[in-house]
Design goal:
Elements lengths: L1 H11 L11 H12 L2 E2 L9 H9 L5 H9 L3 E5 L3 E5 L7 H8 L10 H14 L20 H13 L3 E7 L2 E6 H4 L11 H16 L4 H4 L6 H17 L3 E3 L7 E3 L1 H5 L9 E3 L10 H8 L20 E6 L2 E11 L4 E9 L6 H18 L4 E4 L2 E2 L4 H9 L2
Parallel strand pairs: 11-12, 11-13
Antiparallel strand pairs: 1-3, 2-3, 4-5, 6-7, 8-9, 9-10, 10-11
Helix pairs in contact: 2-4, 6-7, 9-11, 14-15
Length: 394
């Protein structure tokens, strides 16, 4: 059963064939709709996580594809379980969180009323602005007009739904009034807790093929939502639209009979380098249960305590995670460094795997704006020469 679930999960994540979503910005829209959200991260040791996640599923992906979706109002930024891009069709399902923040129920996103008024008045008059547009360039200007209070106000207004991020300049957010950004046809009816739970179940099963309570409540607090999710799962099982399965080593999983009955093709022999924030691996316990792969991101771990490196990427080959590689893009000199490569399985045909891995690394280096590849450390050590030859002969 575990093998079947692996294939189901990888299929729903778009990781079993070379071009499951096609090409171009239309493919990016399909990826976003299928996965439900794409997590944003600001770390830039390699190409940022949101672009990396798209690239893994769209071979010709370019960062401007995502910008195009935002500018076309097909996608927007908000919070899923973390800062994310979401399809505009999901907008109404972020309204409960916006309302909660507006009511002051969150201990975060605090800003004083006078700053909030100043920021929203300026955007209303001057049009879309960045945080740094509120910096003072005049000597002796009052401190509170400077960056920090303005940024706090921008974040509060964004999180409570008065502002939207209409574009980005690099990673700098550009804010505008929601009323000027949100498409007219957008459904703005705030969902009930049961409607929100139904949405979360649908997104999770659509993206992974099955779900668990732990997945559904990942970084989501509140007994009311938890109870609504339990009710939704129970009602849908009684209606026959969901089934509950027991799998050894995993909590109860929920899926549909159609998904279980569908014959999923075995994953291709392509090698994938996944972002640490990729939707397929963001639930670390689930990855360990399903793939027997213990993965943790170590960039927040003190250097002396790291096992694998600052920004190790899981290596997916066929239907297994076979190792990890710590990467860094030295963009100024066009050099892509593989500082630590770890192959963690002996049950692999190296003559088949290494050329495919090398091809993927070269593609990824190019995506990161690099022309050459530098190898620092290989484990097991006895693979070093074979690994280097493979990389150099692509």
């Amino acid at each position: 059963m575990n093998k079947k679930l692996r294939h189901i999960a990888l299929h729903h994540q778009g990781l079993t064939t070379e071009r499951p979503f096609g090409k171009g910005s239309q493919a990016a829209q399909q990826v976003l709709e299928q996965l439900g959200y794409i997590q944003i991260d600001t770390l830039s040791v390699i190409e940022r996580a949101h672009h990396h996640t798209f690239w893994t599923r769209i071979p010709d992906y370019q960062p401007n594809y995502l910008q195009q979706l935002v500018r076309e109002r097909s996608a927007f930024e908000y919070w899923f379980h973390a800062a994310s891009y979401l399809p505009m069709s999901s907008y109404r399902f972020v309204l409960p969180q916006m309302s909660s923040i507006r009511r002051g129920e969150s201990p975060y996103y605090n800003a004083e009323t006078k700053y909030i008024k100043h920021v929203i008045d300026r955007i209303r008059i001057d049009g879309p602005l960045k945080a740094r547009d509120f910096e003072s360039t005049k000597k002796g200007c009052a401190k509170w007009w400077n960056w920090k209070p303005a940024k706090s106000a921008l974040i509060r207004l964004f999180m409570q739904g008065d502002l939207m991020i209409t574009d980005r300049d690099g990673m700098e957010k550009i804010y505008d009034l929601t009323e000027r950004v949100l498409p007219d046809e957008t459904d703005t009816r705030e969902p009930s807790c049961l409607e929100l739970s139904e949405y979360l179940v649908n997104v999770s099963i659509g993206a992974h093929g099955f779900t668990t309570m732990k997945q559904l409540t990942h970084l989501r607090r509140g007994e009311q939502l938890r109870n609504a999710l339990k009710t939704t799962l129970q009602q849908r099982m009684e209606q026959g639209s969901l089934v509950e399965c027991t799998v050894e080593g995993m909590p109860p999983i929920y899926t549909t009979q159609d998904i279980l009955d569908t014959k999923v093709k075995k994953p291709t022999t392509n090698v994938r380098l996944l972002s640490p924030f990729d939707n397929a691996i963001i639930h670390r316990d689930r990855v360990e249960q399903l793939f027997d792969f213990d993965y943790r991101l170590e960039c927040y771990t003190p250097k002396e305590k790291r096992q694998f490196g600052y920004f190790c990427l899981p290596i997916l080959y066929k239907d297994k995670f076979v190792g990890r590689v710590d990467c860094k893009a030295h963009r100024k000199v066009g050099d892509f460094e593989l500082s630590n490569f770890y192959l963690e399985t002996k049950d692999i045909d190296l003559d088949e795997f290494l050329p495919r891995f090398s091809k993927t690394v070269h593609r990824f280096a190019k995506f990161n704006g690099c022309q050459s590849i530098r190898i620092t450390n290989v484990r097991p050590k006895n693979l070093t020469n074979q690994f280097r030859r493979s990389i150099e002969t692509v």
